[in-house]
Amino acid sequence: MRARRVRVGLAGALVGALALAGCGLKSGSPMVDDVVPGSVGRGRPLDGASLTVTSKNFSENIILGQMIGLVFKAAGAEVLDRTNLPGSISAREAIVKGDADAMYEYTGTGWITYLGHAKPIPDPLKQWEAVRDEDRNNGVTWLPQSTLNNTYALAISRKNNAGYHLRTLSDVAALAKRNPAAVTICVENEFASRDDGLPGMEKAYGMSVPAANIKKMDAGIIYTQVSKSDSCLLGEVFTTDGRIRAMDLEVLVDDKHFFPNYNAAPVIHTRTFEKYPQIAALLDPVSRKLTTEVAQVLNAKVDVDGQDPHEVAKDWLIQEGFIEEG
Fold first, then answer.
1. What is the pLDDT of residues 57-91, one digit of tens each?
2. Strand 102-106 to strand 152-157: parallel, antiparallel, or no bridges (unpaired)?
3. How far is Cα of residue 260 from the mean position of the Cα atoms in its chain?
4. Is there a contact between 56 and 1 (Cβ–Cβ < 8 Å)?
5. Cα separations (Å) of 36 from 71, 75, 76, 78, 227?
6. Cα distance between residue 135 and residue 114, in whole Å
7. What letter does residue 48 receive in the DSSP assignment?
8. What is the C-alpha separation between 267 and 102, in angstroms, rounded?
9. Which of 71, 172, 285, 305 has the fewest beta carbons under 10 Å from its own?
């Protein structure tokens, strides 16, 4: 399940979250990796700490949750792994209630889904600052964000783009005016009707795509259709999806900054952070290395190659020198 897909159906997710909270989030297992500090965690600043990490149940967020756990483990903590919770709300409630101590969250999800704002803030830093400041009231501490931005986009196959040379969504709008029949778009049902999806995008860019040129289908099929068939010139994608690289797709630039920012940032239960403020020094360097392109590569290892998210996270942290094998 992708980050955006849990922005709807919140009532049902909340019921599940409350059920998990009611049973004290008893699921989970100790992280037993033999890892030691690399460039982070020297001096084992979390010696004696017992910390719980969590995540939502889609590949990218599981990978990011595993990264936090492995860094904590290398820094001396005993770590309980409660990643892969169903949906956004379950993981969110775990952090708010203190049933979990840390996870990676997305600024747009925090601002829109949890804090209830209808209008996103276009500037990524200002969006993060607004979420950070308001969420303090909920006992949640946001650490500095990464440039990893898991948001909506339109993509085209490199093969098809050879004939159009599209680079931005404004280019798509110009093509739609010049040759309406050329612009065919494959989207999910949700994206086709959301204000922060296709209707809003058309309005923001002054484009009008004929209804017959909009084809609705499941997310996984979109990537294949855009890559391997001529039924869709363009397709709705998620910017960090590993299939973008695997299927040789080009993501078009949202040059009017219409789509919300969903930058990944560590969120910590505030009482935990007050007890272990050294967590910031452990996670900040990791976040600085996390980009949209890095996420595409790591997500592809799981979603395309079938690797285990824990091992993908561990291999990357070792490769970057953050931790080492014990």
1. 999 999 999 999 999 999 999 999 999 999 889 99
2. unpaired
3. 12
4. yes
5. 9, 7, 8, 13, 42
6. 9
7. T
8. 6
9. 305
